[in-house]
Design a protein that fits this description.
This protein has helices at residues 30-42, 60-73, 89-97, 124-139, 156-169, 186-200, 212-224, 242-249, 264-275, 293-299; strands spanning 18-24, 49-55, 77-80, 102-105, 118-121, 145-150, 175-181, 206-209, 234-239, 255-258, 283-285, 290-291. It is an alpha/beta fold. It has a six-stranded parallel sheet with strand order 2-1-3-4-5-11, sandwiched between helices. The longest helix has 16 residues, at 124-139. The chain starts with 17 loop residues before the first strand and ends in a 6-residue tail after the last helix. The structure holds beta-D-galactofuranose. The site of beta-D-galactofuranose has 14 residues, from helix 1 and strand 9.
């Protein structure tokens, strides 16, 4: 008799489809689009998955609601890219009580690590430190004035990058004029930079933006103010997405620290391993690199995102 697929929900066993609910942060930046693409590619039907995808428009309540709906649908596993560190304990407990394992990708949470199976992401503190070391190397001893565009308030990416940057620039004579959030978006970066330019004008020597997109938004404001980005105001950002690398190659940015968005394959491996009852590492950090203008020109043609 035929042993056709009985459509049972995946238990990670051979051949069964694994149903996964993925609660993505939103679609706020070029990095996020690259990350979403990587996740959809990895959690494809060809790889044995049935992916239920939700992008929460950069709002935590929507992201928590998406996780709750995955629990009600009885998915086999849930993946979350948690927008902020706090506020996850309850819904993670509900998933645990429903016997649905959770894997985190990208940002981290403050909830106890007993409440999720594993996390795969980046070393945000190191990214901030690498950006800070570049600023220290190029501006310490010159009484330089610096402004910061912070990422989403309360996100581990913004919190840890700020920590790393402060550590690397401690003891320098670099003067931080201001530091506000642009919420990781181009529009946010542009608006906050417009405010900085009104307030500090050409006293600003350096801009540190927690991601390329806010830096790209700031370019519009800098040029609208008649200043030359990359010269009048030097710019260091984090991500190294295509448009950021193009700005660097064009001399409008001066240094970029990469934040690798290609986390899908690792996340999918973790989900399969957890469902197969294997023990997995609690944390997996994916390596980053950094780029000067020359390196960006060299790397651009073969960059996967
Ligand atoms: C970092 C990621 C950040 C990116 C931003 O892993 O969470 O969120 O740096 C994105 O571009 O919006």
């Amino acid at each position: 008799s035929s042993t056709g697929d009985d459509g049972a929900s995946g238990d990670g066993g051979s051949g069964d489809v694994i149903t996964v609910g993925f609660a993505q942060t939103g679609s706020e930046s070029g990095w996020r689009s690259a990350n979403t693409e990587s996740m959809k590619e990895a959690f494809s039907a060809d790889n044995g998955f049935d992916l239920k995808f939700n992008a929460a428009d950069n709002k935590q309540e929507a992201q928590i609601a998406a996780v709750r709906s995955f629990i009600n649908q009885g998915v086999d596993a849930i993946v979350i890219a948690p927008i902020t560190v706090d506020g996850w304990d309850d819904v993670l407990k509900e998933a645990q009580d429903a016997g649905i394992p959770v894997v985190l990708e990208d940002r981290t949470v403050s909830a106890s690590e007993d409440l999720y199976a594993s996390w795969v992401g980046l070393d945000f503190e190191q990214e901030g430190k690498t950006a800070g070391e570049w600023v220290k190397e190029n501006f310490d001893g010159k009484g330089a004035n610096l402004v910061i565009l912070e990422g989403t308030t309360g996100s581990s990416a913004a919190l840890d990058r700020a920590t790393g940057f402060a550590e690397a620039t401690e003891g320098t004579d670099i003067n931080v004029l201001d530091s506000q959030t642009g919420d990781f978006t181009r529009d946010g970066g542009k608006k906050v930079m417009e405010g900085y330019l009104q307030k500090y004008g050409d006293d600003i020597d350096v801009l540190f933006a927690h991601n390329d997109d806010m830096g790209l938004g700031a370019l519009d404001a800098i040029e609208a103010a008649g200043l030359t980005p990359g010269k009048d105001i030097q710019i260091v950002t984090i991500d190294a997405v295509h448009d950021g690398m193009q700005a660097l190659a064009d001399g409008k940015f001066n240094f970029i620290v990469e934040c690798n968005p290609l986390l899908g394959e690792k996340a999918a491996d973790l989900v399969k391993a957890v469902l197969a009852g294997e023990t997995v590492e609690k944390k997996t950090i994916v390596p980053d690199q950094s780029f000067t203008q020359e390196q960006a020109i060299e790397a651009l043609p073969t960059r996967p995102y």
